[in-house]
Design goal:
The chain has 63 residues and is mostly helical. The chain has a domain at 30-63. The radius of gyration is 21 Å and the shape is elongated. It starts with 31 loop residues before the first helix and ends with a helix. It is built from two helices and no strands. Helix 1 (32-44) packs across helix 2 (49-62).
């Protein structure tokens, strides 16, 4: 470190956040009971409906 104040400092690399991806609205049709289950699960686990569905889709695609 060039500055005398920072001579004992430590350089640390941190991962930069990924570039934000644009969200796009979609329209899907689901049975009412499935939608209710999705909403209940999402609420209990701190997700929005969209967030849960996006995460579930990514998990299914990766499997």
């Amino acid at each position: 470190m060039a500055s005398a104040e920072n001579r004992e400092g430590v350089a640390v690399l941190i991962e930069a956040p990924a570039e934000e991806v644009k969200s796009v609205p979609v329209n899907v049709t689901l049975p009412a009971d499935v939608l209710s289950e999705i909403d209940h699960y999402a609420e209990q686990h701190g997700f929005t409906r969209s967030g849960f569905l996006a995460q579930a889709a990514k998990k299914a695609i990766a499997a």
